[in-house]
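Minutes, methods subgroup
Present: GH (chair), OT, SY

1. OT presented the first of two proteins processed in the latest run. Sequence and structure tokens recorded below as shown on screen.
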Amino acid sequence: MPFLIEAWDNPDSQPVRAGTLKPHLEFLAQNAAKLLAAGAKLEDDGKTMLGSFYIVDVETRAEAEAFLAADPFAQAGVFGRSVITRWRKAYLDGQCYLPKS
């Protein structure tokens, strides 16, 4: 069952985020097979970064924790807080995964 990883940026981490963007994107590309979804969290202005989220298709919390720990953003100290939660698919890409009743 997948895990949702939600991370919040540290205050004033934008320069660090910008400086590690390329290795972060390379990390995501290298781990694309594990990613059901990923993206930046933004302020309503659509530009100001707040953090990141990932839905990773791994079997254990330890694997989800290892994924986050290996992210260049995490290694560089961009994230101040993160939460990892087991996630059950109900809908993804417009497709229903709920049991038929």
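2. SY then presented the second protein from the same run.
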Amino acid sequence: MKFFLLSDNVDTLAGMRLVGIEGIVIHKRQEVLDELQKVMSDETVSIVLMTTKLVELCPEVISELKLRQTKPLIVEIPDRHGSSDIGESIDRYVSQAIGFKIWGE
């Protein structure tokens, strides 16, 4: 199982490289889409880690891939600039997948 990181900052990439995860630093929407297409077609990659900022550049594409693709798994990770609302992202993803909100406010 091979991981690959798409990051918007060097610090996250450096940290992941320390544990053996390769990746790339990108900043623009088109760069995200291009690199994501390359990684999605790489049969050796099982899990794609993406920083929250990059996911926010193309949320509709990421949501569609998460719903339609079985491999590789796309996992959103917060970085040092990220917020702690990852739970809300998971809630939104599940709600989109099943068509209604499970948890009440």
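Chair's summary of item 2: The longest helix spans residues 86-98.
Next meeting: continue with the remaining queue.
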